[in-house]
Write a structure and sequence with these properties.
Elements: H1 9-12, H2 15-25, H3 33-40, H4 42-54, E1 64-68, E2 74-78, H5 81-99, H6 116-134, E3 138-143, H7 147-150, H8 153-161, H9 167-178, H10 194-214, E4 220-223, E5 226-231, H11 234-252, E6 261-264, E7 269-271, E8 274-276, E9 281-283, H12 285-303, H13 309-323, H14 329-337, H15 340-343, H16 349-365
Antiparallel strand pairs: 1-2, 3-5, 3-6, 4-5, 7-8, 8-9
Helix pairs in contact: 2-5, 5-10, 8-9, 8-10, 10-11, 14-16
Length: 367
Amino acid sequence: MPKKIKNLYDKKLTFDKLLEAHKRAKKNKTYKKDVINYELNLENNLINLLRSLQKQNYHLGNYYKFKIYEPKERIIQALPYKDRIVHQWYVEEFIKPYIVPKFITTTFACLTNKGTHKAVEEVQKQMRIFKRNYGDFWILKCDIKKFFYSINPKILYEIMKKYISDQKLLNLTKLLIFNEAEDDSVLGIPIGNYTSQFFANIYLNELDQYIKRVLKVKYYTRYMDDFILLLENKEQCKTIKKSIEIFLQKNLKLELNNKSRYYPYKMGVNFCGYRIFTTHRLLRTSSKKKIKKNIKKWNYQYSKNTLNVSHSLQSLTSWIGHSSHCNSYNLQKKLINKCNFIFSDKTYELLEQELINTIENSNKENL
């Protein structure tokens, strides 16, 4: 693996590569209006995009902004479709093959064959190893205050320069980071861009390397801006936490959230939707409250004949898949039995058995 990306921009910039990026970008969005419009003149559109990237006169379009409210209120910024093709090309041709392999093995967000469930498994595995080898221990749980909105674009660009020496690729990188406006007062990167999740990971890889290489913390797991450290005692937690705070402020201009704290391992740790202990895992209370609230709403809509059954079943099975990664067999059966829209109609009798089979099989896998 080369230390830096060199002389690859022109080599990777071909019509076929952009066509592949288009196919990835449109996945699950085939019937979106902007995708349909782009495909009406696909060949010419891709050729024009190719030429603009070759001549280095490519510019980002205007962002479309909207809010989401799960898991918390956030502003999402979406670019026009052609820009999403460029993001796909940039990430798949440069970030994934040349930068991601340099990450530590215990970071799990937005990476192939990783994710929340793998992160949870890793934390529990580390807890069990620590307990077996050293006895009682402490947990330092941290997250970054307003992470995406606090990323400093200039620092991010300097970090990217450590990985890239190809000037054309650097020019595109600067455009994607700054959106053509290098303003010292502007912080954050847009939530919603395909590049943003990777830029965020690259930004916090600086912290990962510091914790592993300088602080020499062996048991460490990160999922985006949430991270867990397993340490021997309370005093070590205090010292490490202070060191992390100093590093974040000095090198990345970030702060820890005031919810960051340390406590004995017997209390378990809330991470990626579960409460994790050395012996078992439980579903977080917020998840249980949410599904109960949804079932109550679905039953009411069903009684009024206004329920979108297909959508509700998708949500229910998604929750079952999530909850099956912890000790929740009895809770799952209890909540399924409360779903009037499943059992009151013979059409859903087969689904009942299918859901129960899913529960039983998933829980067997977790034994």
